[in-house]
Design brief:
The complex is a heterodimer.
Chain A (H helix, E strand, L loop, with lengths): L1 E3 L2 E3 L2 H30 L4 H14 L2 H11 L5 H7 L11 H11 L1 H13 L3 H9 L4 H12 L1 H16 L3 H7 L9 H10 L3 H29 L5
Helix pairs in contact in A: 1-5, 1-6, 1-9, 2-6, 3-10, 5-10, 6-9, 7-8, 9-12, 11-12
Chain B lengths: L1 H24 L2 E7 L3 H14 L4 E7 L1 H9 L6 E3 L4 H8 L9 E6 L1 E5 L8 H7 L5 E4 L5 H12 L3 H4 L3 E4 L2 H9 L5 E5 H5 L10 E4 L8 E7 L7 H10 L2 H9 L6
Parallel strand pairs in B: 1-2, 1-3, 6-7, 6-8
Antiparallel strand pairs in B: 3-10, 4-10, 5-8, 5-9
Helix pairs in contact in B: 2-11
The chains are: A mainly alpha, B alpha/beta.
Chain lengths: ~230, ~260
């Protein structure tokens, strides 16, 4: 609990939101990097389909994603049964782990697109030259690709994190509003508005506004200085 | 020339006059309705338009708190059907609703539903054993159904045993989704969601109607807004809500009427 302008603010949803956003960013950078690299090197027409699939969460209403996840992550559903095969005991809906998985899908384009554009901008002659000097693929990736697409990683991480912080529909649909597990800030604000606690809603909303503005300014600042393409 | 102008003026006058006189009889209204009452009020409206074909009522459904916030900020609603008494009364207190128009249009009933556990015969034992991993309840803070469900559990001394297993839906509709999709094996839902023939759990699983003596009645209050005070369609619709025909529809959907 924290008192701001005489109003008690529960900080738990804020910590939880930051935790879920950090986990999502980590997972997406790990999974999104190989995916973005693969896509950046693709020449076949399949690339169009893949790009469209990755961009889907941008245009789909989050409620659609949330609804599908409620169905797919159902304890008797395929995904849970598949995971049980590997010894998973538990349920993906109503849990923090489930929220992270949901957020990974929800924020996928925000990680993959900046990375893909950064990778595409690397001149292939550099990689070819390194290859003639017998640098292995991983060697080339870590010594040439990674340093040259630093800003792409920075933008991907920042946008993924911020987008997950602002998540609402998916969390609402599959979260279950459990304190400390799935009650994220956006849900908390919704609840305050619903129960006419406008003071708390105002303070939390203002915090979100300032946070989002700061993040966007950071991203556009990076764009300006280093010319990283976003989106 | 003059003759033509005069004729035209007459035609124009007649048209305008007709348009205005038609306006007096036929009106349209927009009504904000608590989400739990969606299907019921649509059915009532089907019956209403048969009697009043001249009127058109449009509905905006949503969580009561959201609708209240919208009305407070100038949303164009002519009446407000809240999910509780509190927020309908608050509309009046804030000078946005007409006190004289206030009435309780329905009483919500709570049921314990499960597709897995024998709740029809041994509801309290099931809650006491608490073998389930999740119990769905509407958010007690925002939804009257949730608040009464929680109060019922506390009254029966069962709350502490199930507390860690509770998952909250934002509204009773949302809590119902958790149960209907099988994500929560058991939950407190509204009777209206069980008896509706279009409900995904209609005639599936088991339910137990929580005795009305065990929780405070869930009175749902309606009020005409300041904006709708001269709207004939709203007046007629509110009057129709109190007719035996409308009451029968409301009761068929699992609500009580005072």
């Amino acid at each position: 609990m924290l008192e701001i302008f005489g109003t008690q603010i529960n900080l738990d949803p804020i910590w939880l939101t930051l935790e879920v956003a950090a986990m999502t960013t980590l997972v997406l950078l790990l999974l999104g990097t190989p995916l973005a690299w693969w896509m950046s090197q693709m020449r076949s027409s399949n690339k169009v389909l893949l790009e469209a699939l990755v961009a889907l969460p941008l245009v789909l209403p989050p409620t659609v994603l949330g609804f599908y996840m409620l169905i797919i992550f159902n304890p008797n559903g395929m995904v849970t049964e598949f995971l049980q095969f590997f010894g998973f005991e538990g349920q993906l809906t109503f849990s923090k782990a489930g929220l992270v998985i949901g957020s990974v899908f929800y924020s996928l384009p925000f990680a993959v697109q900046p990375l893909m554009h950064a990778f595409e901008a690397i001149p292939s002659r550099l990689l070819d030259a390194a290859a003639t000097m017998r640098a292995s693929f991983l060697d080339r990736f870590f010594t040439i690709v990674m340093p040259l697409s630093q800003r792409g990683f920075l933008v991907a991480a920042t946008l993924t994190f911020a987008h997950t912080v602002g998540e609402f529909g998916v969390v609402l649909m599959m979260g279950g509003n459990i304190p400390g597990q799935t009650r994220m800030v956006s849900i908390d604000i919704f609840d305050h508005v619903e129960s006419m606690e406008y003071d708390q809603a105002h303070i939390l909303s203002a915090m979100m506004l300032i946070f989002s503005l700061a993040v966007l300014m950071l991203v556009y600042g990076l764009n300006r200085r280093f010319g990283v393409k976003v989106g | 020339m003059k003759q033509t102008v005069k004729q035209w003026a007459q035609v124009l006058g007649l048209t305008v006059g007709l348009a205005f006189s038609a306006q007096v009889v036929a009106e349209s209204a927009t009504v904000a309705v608590a989400a739990n009452f969606t299907k019921t009020i649509e059915s009532v409206n089907d019956a209403f338009v048969k009697q009043h074909p001249e009127h058109t009522i449009r509905f905006s459904f949503g969580p009561t708190g959201k609708l209240f916030a919208q009305i407070s900020n100038g949303a164009p609603f002519d009446a407000f059907f809240a999910a509780d008494e509190k927020r309908a009364q608050k509309t009046i207190e804030n000078g946005l609703g007409l006190d004289s128009s206030y009435f309780v249009y329905a009483q919500g009933k709570i049921a314990l539903y499960s597709a897995k556990y024998p709740v029809a015969n041994t509801p309290l034992e099931v809650l006491k054993k608490a073998e389930f991993n999740h119990l769905a309840i509407a958010n007690p803070k925002t939804a009257p159904y949730g608040e009464r469900s929680e109060a019922f559990l506390k009254k029966m001394g069962l709350y502490d045993g199930v507390k860690s297993k509770i998952v909250n839906g934002e509204s009773i509709a949302h809590a119902f989704q958790y149960v209907a999709t099988g994500n929560a094996p058991i939950g407190f839902v509204a009777m209206s969601q069980i008896v509706d023939p279009q409900s995904p759990i209609y005639k599936k699983g088991e339910y137990w109607v929580v005795p009305q003596a065990d929780y405070a009645p869930i009175n749902q209050g309606a009020v005409i807004t300041k904006r709708g005070q001269d709207n004939q369609a709203i007046k007629d619709f509110m009057a129709f809500m109190k007719t035996p025909e409308a009451i029968k529809i409301i009761e068929n959907y699992g609500y009580g009427v005072q």
